[in-house]
Amino acid sequence: MNFAICPLSVVSVRRNSFGKSEQLTQLLFGEMVEILEKKGKQWVKIRCTWDNCIGWVEARQIKPITPREYEFFRHNFAYSLDLLQPLLAGDHHLPITIGAQLPGFDGMRFRLDNLTYLFSGQAVFPKNLKPTIDLTLKIAKRYLYAPAQWGGRSPLGIDSSGFTQLVYKLLGIHLHRQPNQQVVQGHAVDFLSQSQPGDLAFFENRKGNIFHVGIILPEFELIHVSGRVRIDKIDHFGIFDSQTQRYTHKLRVVKRVLPKDKTYFSEKLEVEEVEKKQMELF
Questions:
Q1: First CA to last CA distance, the chain
Q2: Which of 30, 89, 125, 197 is the most exposed place for a label (fewest CB within 10 A)?
Q3: Which of the four pLDDT bands, split at 50, 70 and 90, describes residue 159?
């Protein structure tokens, strides 16, 4: 098999092999792909090794790597945690986004394409990732106000499932690329009242198809992408926009991908008991 790595900040993956074709998803710096087919010298059909998404990229925007390099980078890398942070390489800077991968990173530098890159931002190695509610919410809120972009996966432009995929990526959890693919992952939560922060809420269109996803926050709020990354109220009907005073998305199902947080539920029960006792005093 032939492999390649993304050596640029963000690269578009398109449905077909021409520049105006629909953007299906994006590659972030350091993410790797399998090369499936070549079309002339300009276009390459690839499979993203992270989520198996298949599409076309410009050949000059990815760098071929050997199977040996692929295996090394697959097991030796760190994630960037900064929204935007430059890599310093020789005489130029290359900005990378949160979720980008630093192949062969030693804590300060790595080598790629015969260049040594220095990285002074926040980074984390996969072995140190712990999927907790607190970390989920902190990562999700870093994307607040990022503009909506079909197929986007960066704070400069992102869609609903790209957002949830990247948040969970930084927790060490693989999610598929599209909402109708992500909905088959995890375990169903019977009622919204039984959800915990970090759960995924999925929404259906008029045809009953899953087309949108967001992350549940405390107090029955949802962080999701609608025009931008934003926070709205959610109930058993769906997402309620307080500005327009109407429901914008119909709730279909809630899924839990994170482990159940017993601490969260015990603290929630304690708060409810205190509130109940206070009410009994009046």
A1: 72
A2: 125
A3: very high
